[in-house]
Amino acid sequence: MDGNRRYGERQFGRARRLEGHQAGGKKLGEVVEWCVDCGVREVTCFAFSTENWRRDPAEIDCLMKTFVGRCDAIKKKAQEKRIRVRVLCTDNRLPEDVDTALQALVDETRTYDGFVLNLAVSYGSRMEIAEAAKAVATDVKNGLLDPNDITEDTITKHLQLPDAPDLLVRTSGERRISNFLLWQLAYTELVFIDKLWPDLSRRDFDSLLRTFANRHRRFGM
């Protein structure tokens, strides 16, 4: 979900550019609505990467406050649409109020079955894969797994997100994956668009779905 700061600077001026993150949070709520309306069953949103901790402390603080503020809105929408919220986190340095708010979302929506919203917060794919490898190594050490029986599925089962996304969309003109779901994206269709995340419209969203529908997925065959 790229382009929040650029959107904020364009709309509010450089001094208030961080307000773009609030606009980005609201846009996520809209996109979830569109997904539910169109029958999309699961979405994973890259909200904050492990690399983002290197940003200016003022911006990190703004982002953390935005997360807490959006949790209430997501909770209301989740109750209305029976949305299950899951959190992907590989480096939990989150402030206590953020961690508590996210965990409450997970706990309160655990039984919902209408739609799944995965929020990647303080997440890095390389670390996710490393943790999966550690878990497999522990099973081998404890005699629960024969090394000769290790397969791709063995690793997949130990990932925080075992499912492979059908479509990845990156906004704002960036053309890279940026340590997001590296294992899971092996055969995912990729689309990169120039619009900033808060500028995304329903027309853009529908166009993305049509683009995906017109792709011929061969899975290496």
UniProtKB/TrEMBL annotation:
Any keyword Transferase? yes
| Biological process, per Gene Ontology | polyprenol biosynthetic process
EC number(s) stated in the UniProt entry for this protein? 2.5.1.-
What keywords does the record list, in alphabetical order?
Answer: Transferase
GO annotations of cellular component type? endoplasmic reticulum
Q: Report the GO molecular function annotations.
A: ditrans,polycis-polyprenyl diphosphate synthase [(2E,6E)-farnesyl diphosphate specific] activity
Extract the Gene3D superfamilies matched here.
Answer: Decaprenyl diphosphate synthase-like
Q: What's this protein's name?
A: Alkyl transferase
